[in-house]
Amino acid sequence: MSTASAIAHPNIAFIKYWGNRDQALRLPSNSSISMNLDGLETRTTVRFDSQLAADALQLNGSAAAPAQVARVSAMLDLVRQLAGTSDFAEVTSSNNFPSGSGIASSSSAFAALALAASAAAGLQLDEAALSRLARRGSGSASRSVPAGFVEWRAADTDEDSFAVSVAAPEHWDLVDSIAVISEEHKAVGSTAGHPLADTSPLQAARLHGAEGRLAQARQAILERDLPALAAVMELDNHLMHAVMMTSSPPLLYWQPPSLAVMHAVAAWRAEGLQAGYTLDAGPNVHVLSAAANAAEVAARLGKIPGVQRVLQAGAGGPARLFEA
Ligand code: PMV
User: Fold this and answer.
1) Beta bridge partners of 173
2) 35 CA → ligand 1 middle, Å
3) Atom of ligand 1 nearest to the CA of 102
4) What's the pLDDT band for 1 if we cut at 50, 70, 90?
5) Is the CB of 163 under 6 A from ligand 1?
């Protein structure tokens, strides 16, 4: 096969990945756990062609910037190496959700690319190998390969650092209501952000408790315990943003409406509406609740000044091939 198409969902981390022990291999400083977001997706087609003079990339209908092509080519190089080919490829990719604003588009992008490119090159990688390959493009992409609720283990070697599913999507009808506050591309993306993590005096403290928080989050998922998940998820989120705010240079991703949403969720919880929040490297706020409360959460989020719209997603499936 010289052409293949794949679909992957972005994911939202409950316990965050921030900082690498090896930047080049994207070996994370700590393990992380996330949920794939059903309904939000990247679709990517890769076609290897011996007639091409260079790799080409179309993103959301337009020719991509040179830096984006270079990042895709770096992953294609890994695939070419594995498959023993030197053919260039034409890559077409589109998202059905805003890119670059804290809805981790790089997670679904590199999971879909790893699968489409490896299949187009004739490789049949198992889930662990695919997750490792996706990790090289974007760390969080390793977690968009398996289904549902997914854990990515930190390790010292390429071989040992990949993601596995801890529960299927059907395990828990949790819904992520995403308060979209900005759809603009962020000034400092996560690839440039990770190397700054160790410049924060707080990173060591964050890492010290990360494995314990991950165990708590995993248990809360397995027991479908939203209050327990919300507590550890918000703590972990505050710790990551504290590291970001105190790195050199500092990264301040929150906007005033982000803070308004955080306060609102805490107030709703005090009134008895169970929900918890987390933010990635951007101003948008992900609010997790039971499916039964998701319509109420979305209606309330929509009334907060500065919230432009609300996207909703339940737990999503794995990266998979499709017929384009
Ligand atoms: O995969 P990257 O390099 O885009 O990093 C993702 C970092 C966060 O989204 C902030 C946290 C996470 O674990 O997804």
Assistant:
1) none
2) 13
3) 9
4) low
5) no
Going by C-beta distance under 8 Å and a sequence separation of 6 or more, which residues neighbour residue 39?
9, 312, 313, 314, 316
Q: Is the CB of 186 under 6 A from ligand 1?
A: no
In the chain, what's the furthest Cα-to-Cα distance?
A: 64
Q: Does the domain spanning 173-313 belong to CATH 3.30.70.890?
A: yes
| pLDDT tier, 191 (very low <50, low <70, confident <90, very high otherwise) | confident
Judge if 2-170 and 173-313 fold alike in CATH terms. no
Share of the chain above pLDDT 90, in %: 93
Residue 262 has pLDDT above 70, yes or no: yes
Q: Is ligand 1 within 6 A of the CB of residue 26?
A: no
* pTM of the predicted model over 0.90: yes
Listing DSSP states for 226-278 in one string gives HHHHHHHHHHHHHHHHHHHHTSSS------HHHHHHHHHHHHHHHHT---EEE
Q: Where are the domains of the chain?
A: 2-170, 173-313
227 has pLDDT over 60: yes
Q: Which atom of ligand 1 is nearest to the CA of 32?
A: 13
Closest of 115, 157, 212 to residue 22, by C-alpha: 157
Q: Which fold has domain 2-170?
A: Ribosomal Protein S5; domain 2 (3.30.230)
Question: Other CB atoms closer than 10 Å to residue 162's CB: what's the count?
Answer: 23
* pLDDT(105) > 60: yes
Average pLDDT, the chain: 96
Minimum-distance ligand 1 atom for the alpha carbon of 191? 3
Q: Which atom of ligand 1 is nearest to the CA of 194?
A: 3
CA of 85 to the centre of ligand 1 (A): 31
pLDDT at 171: 98
Mean pLDDT of 179-198: 87
Closest to 268 in 3D by CA, of 319, 226, 323? 226
